[in-house]
Amino acid sequence: MLTTLAVENYRSLRRLVVPLAGLNVVTGANGSGKSSLYRTLRLLANFARNGAVAALAREGGLGSTLWAGSESVGDAVLRSVPPGLRVGFAGDDFGYAAELGMPPRDRKSMFNLDPEIKAEAVWAGPVLRPATLLAERAGRVVRLREDNGEWGMVPHALQPFDSMLSELADPQSAPDLLLVRERIRSWRFYDHLRTDADAPARAPQVGTRTLVLGHDGADLAAALQTIREIGDAQALAQAVDRAFPGSEIAILDRDGRFELALRQPGLLRPLGGAELSDGTLRYLLLVAALLTPRPPELFVFNEPETSLHPELLAPLAELIATVAVDTQVIVVTHAQPLVVALDGSAARPRTVELVKRDGATTITGQGMLDQPPWYWPKH
Predict the structure, then answer these.
(1) Which long-range contacts (CB under 8 A, 24 or more apart) does 263-269 make?
(2) Both 217 and 178 in a single domain?
(3) How far is it, in rounded angstroms, from Cα 83 to Cα 97?
(4) Final residue before a domain boundary, out of 295, 310, 337
(5) Handedness of CA 44, 46, 50, 51 (dihedral sign)
(6) Does 71 have pLDDT greater than 60?
(7) Domain ranges, residue 202
């Protein structure tokens, strides 16, 4: 489980160290930095797939995403940090951090929006210390701690756009890097679930056993049927009935293509996927994502309340709280009814309220002594 998320110099996130629990609710006013914190998690996930540099380039390059404010926030003067972007996380057993910086000015390349990876580190335990380091990168040079505790140098230099998580993770030479990489890759984000009139989830799709709902929800019918057959069918039925009393889902098989339908009391026939409201479809998509028979290390939801009727927020909160017993969940939301419903759940979430002060995002009520211990890798 992640215990800390840290970021420096990313948009309005000048310096933020966020404590995490099993269930986490990130909230705040519009423009307070919620989306930037969500993107921080996305960026970390991209390192495990060697896509962090490209992801920043698509945002306009490092220069467009770096903090552009002053070195002071209110009465506090922030200590100077390198002009780069830093992201990292720590957990009970492992931690990872990386720094990206601008390429040399004299570099002869057309890829000038691509930043360079300046430093990376993987360590054991929740806090980075010299004794807990397992792998360390400075520029293009990487060293790995061997079984005898001594350091071994990687014989070849890494390209500045390649992460050591993707290039060096190996079960023999770097098992710790492999473990961290695979754990990050298991994180699951759902921010592209479609509910528009042409959403693929509304149309029949080829039915195949689906343990994990796709990122756009196209395989919704197959994912729901998989839950019914090899997952928690009772939890699925309860989640549907809690939101739509007396209703139940039906999966129609049309020559190998599965179509979603919803049976509701008082109707002589079930409603097909094309007839469902955006909110009903989105709720069923979230249910299919949360009740996956193959849960991830971490669920991250960005504004899951979008398109949902207010009456659906309580059933959604109840389901999220139930899932958070076994899987870590981070919910980024500005819907106060959802925040209140999650706060009142038995899961006892950690609520992180963001507020912007002098252009910089801070956590309401967090002083310097309230932050979890955090140290960045050196290079």
Answers:
(1) none
(2) no
(3) 16
(4) 295
(5) negative
(6) no
(7) 191-295
Provide the residue count of the chain.
Answer: 379
Residue range 255-259: mean pLDDT, rounded: 94
- The pLDDT of residue 60 is 86
Q: Which of 236, 233, 212, 208 has the alpha carbon at shortest distance from 222?
A: 208
What spatial distance separates the first Cα and last Cα of the chain, rounded to whole Å? 27
d(CA 9, CA 67): 5
For the entire predicted model, the pTM comes to: 0.92
Strand partners, 329: 23, 299
Q: Which residues contact residue 144 at a Cβ distance below 8 angstroms, ignoring those fewer than 6 apart?
A: 134, 135, 151, 152, 154, 168, 173, 174, 177
Which residues does 255 contact at the CB level (< 8 Å), separation at least 6?
none
In a domain, 340, yes or no: no
Q: Could you tell me which residues come within 8 angstroms of residue 129 by beta carbon, excluding any fewer than 6 positions away?
A: 123, 375
pLDDT per position as a tens digit, 105-145: 766 777 877 889 999 999 999 999 999 999 999 999 999 99
> What is the rounded CA–CA span in Å between residue 305 and residue 303?
5
Tokens of 207: 């039915």
According to the model, what pLDDT value does residue 75 have?
44
pLDDT tens for each residue of 323-341: 999 999 999 999 999 999 9
Domain boundary among 251, 274, 295: 295
